[in-house]
Amino acid sequence: MVTRVDALPVTPHKPADESQARGRRPLSVLLVESDTARSEQLKRALKPVCALVEAAPTPQHAEALSQRCHFDLFVVTLSQPGSRILEWLQVLRDRGESAEIVLTSEYADVDTAISALRAGASDLLVKPFRDEQLIEAIRRCLRRRRQLHENYLSRSVKPRDPSAEGLIGESPAIRRVLDVIERVAATSSTLLLQGETGTGKELIARALHRRSGRKGQFVAVNCGAIPSELLDSELFGHIRGAFTGAHMSRSGLFVCADNGTIFLDEIGELPWPMQANLLRVLEERRVRPVGSNQERAVNCRVIAASNAPLEARVRDGVFREDLHFRLNVLPIHVPALRERVEDIPLLIAHFMRLLSPELGTPPMPVSPQEVKRLQGYRWPGNVRELRNLVERALLLGKPLLECCDWDEGGDPGRGAATRQPFPLTLSLAEVSKQHVLSMLKSVGGNKSEAARRLHISRKTLERKIQVWNSES
To answer: What does the domain layout of the chain look like in residue ranges?
Structure first.
């Protein structure tokens, strides 16, 4: 009797016990073992510690099962030297299979070990081995994969201290935001945060993740800071050989955020082709690494953010309307600091407490008159600008008002970015250059925000800077 490969059953994916259901992510394992009795023995040993254990007698059967269900780890038996098992493992690695592989064999020679490692095996067990040795090998593989993910995140995403800016305040504007966080944190709905640069959108996204109960990581991605040609690979991963320099397969940031939250900052800067790819991921919750023909399911909450209204970018034809509808499930307006001036005293006190120990300087008192003057300023840089002002005052040991970069009349309604006393001897091109560079400096080098305030596209701004750099 010939068993059809596609007729093999798949056991429902459920936790092995209550502690696993409440705790870590369920683990799915596929055994590739031609010996039926040995396969059953291994299944019995692994079921208490794994949520899903399936068995396949041949690589062909294993291929069929892996097409229908994602497995975190393969336990593969090498029955004899020169087996085609090693060739199959190499095929898995070349196409971007992310599962860890534990190889078991009766042959302990060095050539077998080297061949196994080259084929992509993470660990090699020599028969006979105890069940506890197999479980420990699986744990080593999972620790290794977790460490690789953490190292990748530390290189790809600059960590930020959630308390560095402080989601602090008692004004009606910020209370509305906090109420929304409490209401929607535990849901999986896609959220869109809209507000000016420096208002604390990432801080709100982190607060939503902390209160969501999700066990996965929080992954923040600045869509405007990653080169467009690398976005596909960064977000969705790639397989080895997918492009020049892809020497090994790598999971993308969506996979790193599995069972967690991915925060897509400056979503409005996403290139048009990538918008279609992101829309598909949001609709199907599956990602396909660059160069691969296989998809992987991901379960991550998506929070997007934009410092400019996406409706305007849709009208300008630079942002897809269908993607905007998909992201705009629940829009949250993050208020500018000038909309919540009642919170300025609380924020100043918070930054004093935060920065004084770090800088080794004592906090300085702020009078009610100073607070009133600060509340009259428009704060184009919002909370981030206020934090920088407090840090500057602590470093210089001067009162806050003496450290403000306002105009000569001390008018808090006008920032330095709006004051451009250019000499009459300058040409129009030179005035334009100085104005653009001053605006860029006033927003801390944020090209997207500078372009928005100058009413030009980011590409136009980058082209001007490139021309000026080449001239100098």
So the answer is: 5-147, 162-335, 338-411, 420-471
Q: Up-side HSE of residue 192: CA atoms within 13 Å toward CB?
A: 18
Contact call for residues 306 and 196 (beta carbons, < 8 A)? no
Under CATH, domain 420-471 is a member of which superfamily?
Answer: Homeodomain-like (1.10.10.60)
- Asked, colleague to colleague, whether 162-335 and 420-471 share their fold, the answer is no
Looking at residue 248, its amino acid is M
- CA dist., res. 175 & res. 107, Å (int): 66
Question: Cβ atoms within 10 A of the Cβ of 124, count?
Answer: 20
SS3 315: helix
Q: Does residue 334 contact residue 224 with C-beta atoms inside 8 Å?
A: no
Residue range 229-275, pLDDT digits in tens: 888 888 988 887 777 777 777 888 999 898 899 999 999 989 888 99
Contact by Cβ (8 Å): 262, 303: yes
Name the residue among 74, 144, 85 with its Cα closest to residue 112: 85
Structure-derived torsion over alpha carbons of residues 459, 461, 467, 471, reported in degrees to the nearest 10: -160
Pairing type for strands 28-32 and 52-56 reads parallel
